[in-house]
């Protein structure tokens, strides 16, 4: 009886693991809820929630999808991890571990495929960027994303300013009635440090000029090349971030497996104790 009692005492659930996982996941859960809320609010502002068919109307990429998908995944995982750890719910704990393991496996597979089929990936990236150039004026969030990328990487278009011929507002065809004809977005313009107010018309007619004259006013390098250069210059930082995320994804399921093991061991010991008590009662009777 005393040995069994001692065995039961040794099978307690680790409070450190339990409350660490609870605290970590409640933050994760709240962040997911915030991302999801921002995404839904953005769609409500654009009228998407009142007309769901408009989700597929945009020819390019809608950045709100990032908030919806990432926020949704974080919300589900955070909920499962938080409640599972607090209530010691084995179903939610298993769901969290399997779901996170699946995400890690998909990321690993995507990384391997991207390395093996890097030329195909590059072609798809060019196709993706060109579609977004075409849809530049169709969605304000996409427009802001492209402007941010061009300003941050000091670039213009996928491979150069002439990529903006793909857009109906900026192309150089004679039939184009747009005032922005043969121009580029303001985010392509070389910034003048003396200007406090952004000149949104700085790119008008700039592609009517020669290559050397353009360089005085706009960035002439493409964003694909500039992004590749940025990756090479910041390779250690980028690799460190990915390794950190990977370690976090591997470590979390391990902690949950430890917690699951503690829960199962405690339940097994409790079952053994009940059986022992029943046996002693029968023998005593």
UniProtKB/TrEMBL annotation:
Pfam families: Tetraspanin. Disulfide bonds join 155-188, 156-172. Signal peptide: none annotated. Gene3D superfamilies: Tetraspanin. It is found in: Cell membrane; Membrane. GO terms for cellular component: plasma membrane. It is a multi-pass membrane protein. Its main location: membrane. Keywords: Cell membrane, Disulfide bond, Glycoprotein, Membrane, Transmembrane, Transmembrane helix. It comes from the Eukaryota. CDD domains: TM4SF9_like_LEL. Belongs to the tetraspanin (TM4SF) family. This is Tetraspanin. It comes from Seriola lalandi dorsalis.
